[in-house]
Amino acid sequence: MDPADDEHLSPDKQIDIAKKMYIGGFFFLPWLWLVNFLFYKEYMNKPNTPPIVKTYVYRSLAGFGIWTVVFFIWLSVYLVNHNSWGAGGDKIAVNIPKGV
């Protein structure tokens, strides 16, 4: 299905999908925000796209960007400091590397 083909999705369906993906991103599924943006980027330049869809899509992009920045900040802090956290740093690790 070509997202630029307006015959496939009515404005009501566009709103419904964009809203569900936007809300879904708040349940620790930020990849839904990225998918929401990528799916609707072709619709964004269409004059008949409902303004609320554009709002959901731009907020999804902003949410994904913020989540990505926060994730990489946390990753950097963890990678630099996890050894100094002792057992607590090991408990939150998925894979504890075996060292000498």
UniProtKB/TrEMBL annotation:
Q: Which UniProt keywords apply?
A: Membrane, Notch signaling pathway, Transmembrane, Transmembrane helix
A Gene Ontology cellular component where this protein is annotated is: gamma-secretase complex
The membrane topology noted for this protein in its Swiss-Prot or TrEMBL record is:
Multi-pass membrane protein
> What are its GO biological-process terms?
Notch signaling pathway
Name of this chain's protein: Gamma-secretase subunit PEN-2
Cellular localization per UniProt: Membrane
Family membership, please give it.
Belongs to the PEN-2 family.
Organism of provenance = Planoprotostelium fungivorum
Transmembrane segment boundaries: 21-40, 60-81
* Source domain of life: Eukaryota
